[in-house]
Amino acid sequence: MSDSSRRGRTRSETTRLAILEATRDELAAHGYDKLSIDRIAAAAGAGKQTVYRWYPSKSALVAECVLEGYLSPLTNPVPDTGDARRDLRAWLDTFAGHLARPRTSALIRALAAAAAESDDVAVRFYEDVTGSVEEAVAARLRTAQDRRPGAMATAAAEALIGAMLYRLLVRQPATPEFLDSLIDTVFSGTRGTGGGTDSGTGGGTDSSTGGGTGGGTERATAATDPAP
Amino acid sequence: MSDSSRRGRTRSETTRLAILEATRDELAAHGYDKLSIDRIAAAAGAGKQTVYRWYPSKSALVAECVLEGYLSPLTNPVPDTGDARRDLRAWLDTFAGHLARPRTSALIRALAAAAAESDDVAVRFYEDVTGSVEEAVAARLRTAQDRRPGAMATAAAEALIGAMLYRLLVRQPATPEFLDSLIDTVFSGTRGTGGGTDSGTGGGTDSSTGGGTGGGTERATAATDPAP
Amino acid sequence: MSDSSRRGRTRSETTRLAILEATRDELAAHGYDKLSIDRIAAAAGAGKQTVYRWYPSKSALVAECVLEGYLSPLTNPVPDTGDARRDLRAWLDTFAGHLARPRTSALIRALAAAAAESDDVAVRFYEDVTGSVEEAVAARLRTAQDRRPGAMATAAAEALIGAMLYRLLVRQPATPEFLDSLIDTVFSGTRGTGGGTDSGTGGGTDSSTGGGTGGGTERATAATDPAP
Amino acid sequence: MSDSSRRGRTRSETTRLAILEATRDELAAHGYDKLSIDRIAAAAGAGKQTVYRWYPSKSALVAECVLEGYLSPLTNPVPDTGDARRDLRAWLDTFAGHLARPRTSALIRALAAAAAESDDVAVRFYEDVTGSVEEAVAARLRTAQDRRPGAMATAAAEALIGAMLYRLLVRQPATPEFLDSLIDTVFSGTRGTGGGTDSGTGGGTDSSTGGGTGGGTERATAATDPAP
DNA sequence: TAATAAACGAGACGGTACGTCGAGTCTTCCA
DNA sequence: TGGAAGACTCGACGTACCGTCTCGTTTATTA
């Protein structure tokens, strides 16, 4: 192959990884638009040219980090205990736990900024990170008893992820109460007696059941209901 | 007042506005992290010092733009025809229409980047722009017949806005189908486009088959309405 | 004037001089082609941009140094005691003394390199340094009793200077013996260290004396002549 | 021997020459301090390592070029017709002719710069190029009828060469008039009203024709004398 | 006829300096 | 005395070469 027969010294894997790690650290420490290639190269013990040889731009570098998985401590699996609502609530909690860590939140914000500035990063970000998270969430919704159809599962997953990202961007903490309300929104629609956020709207519970709609929904709702 | 009695030349309103407009244009044209104060000053016909006199940093400048309303063609009112689902669907459509314009999307993305990088901008962004949009949406949900409680209305509003922002960031178009699914998610919870998708919930079948969109929405709305 | 009415901060004379001095030192220390603008700026306590603002290239910087007189410890006056030969021999000795100092020789070599690489520097070098030296030497020759005509005085001056420069470039020391021979060449032409060296052509002696031109020359020649 | 019995591939003469030719071309095209080993290697179709294997530095490379004779189109023989003055004037003309060619002058200037920057190159330059030229000129002077003694012949030769080099460095053209004056200076010492530059010195004709031998030199001197 | 070893082209490596751009500060003049 | 113009220091940018170091290949010599 033309590839294998290429002459000249081969690319140093060690250096490649050192650069990516340095980039991740810089990203967490200074954010996307303060990224300094000089600093990254120095931290990686590499020459600047070596960085530029493989990554023509800041965004390409960040994109590679994404691809390499350095930036996705987010992709934890969605549990499956049979109760979709409870499962997603648990997953959401873990997710929020990650985002609450200063380093991770800085990283995600930096990544959001990178995605905002660069189409390439945005697409990579979507395809390699949030897309897969989203798909995992959507898959869990599809396999729930209510058999939520594909498009809706996607929309629901994006609503969850989008709301979390939004809170992160505007610096609003994702409190347990908020997560509850979010899950309620996705699982109960308008009938939000909420997973307990609502107080004293006992009637709400009825109405939800009264919906007479899905047994699946019912059970899911019931699952998170404090009082069966 | 001490203000009015201050000696010397008074601040030039003309210049102030020229700076803000130049900033907005730069933001739309180059994004947040490529903002150049030099360019802004030149475009505004102002000295750099004049810019720095009033705005100590890039983010303060952007924040002022936000405050001034240059960046919020987004705050269009939520209609109220009595049908909350239809109203919000309509509002979402308008919203998506704004975001589909290249200049506006560039602006919002730049603003998201600014918010990601700067706490100050993030808070301003929230308080002056998305917060009020969110509140308008939440308010509409609260006044709906289902009397969605406060926390849930907020969560639902953020789910809508967050999903839209997320789509913007990852460069996924907000198709009408997606908006439909989003509204369905918020209004119908688990029952998707129809209860029929659920396993063994006969009642749902009708609505799902009724499918389509407009009709579906109608029925979906009806379906989730606790009190017909 | 358009110049005097220019607005904005005025050029800092302090900085200008610091840059030129740093350049001179760099030139003596590292030579022309190892000049580092970074180092010059740092040594001068100036920003690189300030250097580049005023001097678009290394050669322009060096040329300015020349013009400013930093590089011409060479222009010592040619004495005039009435004996041109003795005067120029003395001047040549002083000249050689300068060139023997390591710092000065490094500077001149650097300058020669700069002149070799850049037309601009070459012309400046000629007009501001060697040209004036040459003219001083030529002037002394013209005012000698032999009234050497203009073009020849120039050629003789360039022969002297050129020979010195050549010795400097090829690292040959300018010994007193060499300086003697050089003066002999210029003042006695073919007759070398003395008319007697010629192969018995008495006429030659006549012609030289017969020139009638100079008793002065005669005397000057006699001065260094071993055999009167 | 140890040399001939060495194992392994032998040095490629083709490559060696290609490198030297590329160096010469680079030198003429860009000058000494802009020499790029990268470019030379590329132009020679050689790897950088091959260049470095044989020439540890830019100056060694240039020195080798000198040694190889690539840089000495200058060493043309000094004619010997019996009239030293006329011979050297002719040689000087040829010499000036070489220096007038842009490529050659660029090469010599580059070489002067190299000599200015590097002791090694300077010594090589002297020993292999100008030294031999100088010696040829000096030898012609010594065999002249006036039997100019060794030291003076050297000084005179260096005066000629130095003056030419100086003119080259400061970008002053070596006009025929200048060459005449130079020859006059060396051959006539103080009495020169200048050979060719002077008009109306009929006597000059005689001297030139008078050729002969010793008288020739004598007469040549006389020829330039305005006053017999 | 192998095995061995040096030189070869290619080109990636850690670095240094380049010349440019922008940030934010500090004058100087004008209105 | 506010504001334009613009020079200042500082630091990062992305590029060009430096001289060194693998790579895989080619060509001699030696076993």
Rounded mean pLDDT of chain A is 81
Oligomer: homotetramer
CATH class of one domain in chain A: Mainly Alpha
Biggest sheet details of chain A = none
Largest interface (C-beta under 8 Å)? A-B, 73 and 70 residues
- What proportion strand of chain A? under 5%
Low-confidence runs of chain A (pLDDT<50, min 5 residues)?
191-228
Count of beta strands of chain A:
0
The helix content of chain A is: 55-70%
User: Rg of chain A, please?
Assistant: 22 Å
List the helices and strands of chain A in order: HHHHHHHHHHH
In the CATH classification, which architecture of one domain in chain A applies? Orthogonal Bundle
How many helices of chain A?
11
> Which homologous superfamily in CATH is the superfamily of one domain in chain A?
Tetracycline Repressor, domain 2
CATH topology value of one domain in chain A:
Tetracycline Repressor, domain 2
* Helix/strand class of chain A: mainly alpha
Distance between the termini of chain A: 66 Å
User: What form of chain A results from the Cα inertia axes?
Assistant: elongated
